[in-house]
Amino acid sequence: MMPSSRMMWLNAIKGLFNGKIIHMFLTGEGMLDIAVDKKTRDGISETFATNVFGHYLLVTELEDLLGGFGADYTQIIWTSSGSALRSAFDSSDITHLKGKQAYGSSKYCMDALSLTINEEWNCRGIYSHVVCPGTVLSSMTFAILPSWFWYLLLPLFFLLRIIVRSFTLTLDAGTSGLVWLTKQAPDSLDYHQKIFTRATWFGTYLDFKKIDVDEATKELVHDQLQLLRKRVLQKIRG
Predict the structure, then answer these.
(1) Does position 22 have pLDDT exceeding 70, yes or no?
(2) Which of 56, 73, 103, 151 is catalytic?
(3) Is 151 one of the catalytic residues?
(4) What is the separation, in whole angstroms, between the first and last Cα of the chain?
(5) pLDDT tens digits for 113-146?
(6) For 21-40, what is the mean pLDDT?
(7) Distance of CA 20 to the CA centre of its chain
């Protein structure tokens, strides 16, 4: 989920001349004007609740079942993003109620949470990995600009794949990294590495980069999620 956004055309034009346009396309940073997020009934941002906390709550509630039923392992796969940047994260506001980068912040928290899950649950055969599918034409991108505009520029985007490999564009290409991961033995992979789906004119390939989350941030995100979980479950269970 991403809050309502609009294209910042002036910044995009400036990016063409200052050399930042590729970074903008890769991350959305400086190119999208994202509205301040709405708040849920539990007092956290809707984007954080949808992208991170709801999944965390589900996984922790199923913790006793994961890794069971005679399976050798259980794998948790998160759909992360290239916009999961340290600069989008505010340690004093992890649910990002005050800022305008709720989407990037939530994905950064997701990356941090994945590391913690591995450290605490690998011994029980439970593994976690994060995958970035790239830029895929979907209802999310159509909310930024109308679908006809994206399809009008589609030939240009395919040409730009020579330098912007995150333009996966199609669902088949964007999900290829996720599908590949389901076929791997998770204990053979380095969970510190984030998997990026890349595309060329001839197909897709995978890129691996170390997750940019320090120890203090990882612990902070986990501690705050635990507190939120305790509060929400107390409210639900009365």
Answers:
(1) no
(2) 103
(3) no
(4) 29
(5) 999 999 999 998 999 999 999 988 887 777 667 7
(6) 63
(7) 22
